[in-house]
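To fix ideas, we now present one chain and its tokenised fold:
***
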Amino acid sequence: MKINLTDRIKEHFEESLSVKMLSMERLTQDLAQATQVMVNSLKLGGKILACGNGGSAGDAQHFAAELVGRFERERMELGAIALTTDSSILTAIGNDYGFDEIFSKQVRAIGKKEDILLGISTSGNSPNVILAIKAAKKMGMRVVAFTGRGGGKIKDLLEPEDVHLCVPSERTARIQETHLLLIHCLCDGIDYLLLDAK
């Protein structure tokens, strides 16, 4: 029996709500920790380097834009760079070294110990995000990782000082939708800690 289009649409909303509610139960404390880690870095003059592929590249750019510009309130500019945006760097590295190196070489070039790497991968298995994490860890940087599907290979790279936010879903669309909510929670929490919790 075929399901009609309006019922199909409702199923998307219901599934999205369910994943978000489960994420709220499981990820709230880790999200608060990630927010504090980022604020500590920013207060020390560090910056957030963000990377991901496809929709996750868009999320990296969205996050950086909210920090450098503003989220919902006026405040000072905050240091954030999406490693997904410079077409000359991406194509030069991709052509000369391979696509897997496009983020790790940027981390080594512009990252410093006080910085945070935000690595986004719905599967947890993106090779270029994995290499970026490895590069960051070698430099002494802390990592905040957004994943789904159990965390993939990325979960095994993280150390106690890092923060893993793994959306409890196997479906890419639901993971991406929840990653966007996590980003907005981070932005709001950063503003709260910098502007209100003094």
In short: The helical segments are 5-43, 55-68, 87-97, 104-110, 127-138, 172-196. The chain has one domain: 5-196. The domain at 5-196 is CATH 3.40.50.10490 (Rossmann fold). DSSP finds six helices and five strands in the chain.
